[in-house]
């Protein structure tokens, strides 16, 4: 992990040396004058700046320092500027704080206090960056509530937008916890049925003998305990969207009844005699391979074709490039609010572990993991132990074509780096250990915009 950059604007060589030595956990950049400081700011984009107000050509006044502060606040308002001032500068310090300086320290400097203030400034900057990035991603979110920057997911979301206004039955394929219900809700929200109900049922969670009455409803006296007429979920979804989760777990007799509904668009309540017309858009989901089940005779082929007019596959989290860190930040921000915790941020080892883990339980596992971490974290940081992740497994190397493997790895690591630094080319190049022009070349080679 490269050191964080700290810009020190100071014309006194003795103080320059003192700060450089005292703050060696940072990559300290030194500038003596305003133009030099602005050049360093543009080039290195440090998150935190310490500055003396008395800079040449006005070392005894504050005009240069205040002008520099104004320039920094305009050019990079998120930068945290800490003003280092002499005792007699009180008026100018107040002016600086009013102009947007983050904090001030009086000379002679107390090294421990200054280190603490700088640490807080970096921390606050990190939290604000995270929040800004999340707000931007949520605003850019392809479907509301779906957080992703992975090309495969974005493609899937575009398909959802195209399919949503149609009347086609949609089948969502994807591993458990990868967001099938979220996508189904997205389909509903983007359809003309959005004002009506979205009703979901999980076929695997309801015992077989109860599923029929849950789906189709029942008349009073239809069976022992049927004290009054009860509408089924399909009927409740009239005018809206009906979402059948884990459809692969439905027993054959019910499959036949569901097929009849899809063909005729009428239902009969259990114990009832009349047919009731119901208008719903059917979306179903499964983590099982229905086509294989159909071939093996465990799932009706005719039902399979009725349900799968459009099939959308949702990639598992392990295949989404850059999404792990992104989703972790999203859930962290969300749970900090819901658990009434002050803003937390991830320690670098925690983020690296999140990125390396394969998340077999997909987004749901990540959601639970981050909730736990937010609850367990002590202080202002989420440590590796707070995540409670199993030891990160070594990844199996599948590709033995060296050029292809190299290309794929290059692409993956670039997307990850860009996602980590919110698309900032300079910082991504630093993370990757290449120059900016090289990164531009690589991006154009891989078609990354
Ligand atoms: N891309 C995403 N962005 C934000 N939150 C997500 C995303 N994908 C899933 N989630 C959240 O993860 C959790 C699990 O998602 P969901 O219930 O939609 O998965 P599922 O595939 O339907 O799961 P199952 O197969 O177990 O029914 C939900 O809380 C959902 O809001």
From TrEMBL:
Transferase found in the keyword field: no
Protein name: PEP-CTERM-box response regulator transcription factor
Pfam families per record: AAA_lid_14, HTH_8, Response_reg, Sigma54_activat
Superkingdom in the source lineage: Bacteria
Record carries keyword Phosphoprotein: yes
GO MF annotation list: ATP binding; sequence-specific DNA binding
PROSITE patterns noted in UniProt: RESPONSE_REGULATORY (PS50110), SIGMA54_INTERACT_2 (PS00676), SIGMA54_INTERACT_4 (PS50045)
Domain Response regulatory: 5-122
Gene behind the chain: prsR
NCBIfam families in alphabetical order: PEP_resp_reg
InterPro entries reported in the protein's UniProt record: AAA+_ATPase (IPR003593), AAA_lid_NorR (IPR058031), CheY-like_superfamily (IPR011006), Homeodomain-like_sf (IPR009057), HTH_Fis (IPR002197), P-loop_NTPase (IPR027417), PEP-CTERM_resp_reg (IPR014264), Sig_transdc_resp-reg_receiver (IPR001789)
UniProt domain Sigma-54 factor interaction: residue ranges: 146-375
GO biological process, one term: regulation of DNA-templated transcription
SUPFAM superfamilies: CheY-like (SSF52172), Homeodomain-like (SSF46689), P-loop containing nucleoside triphosphate hydrolases (SSF52540)
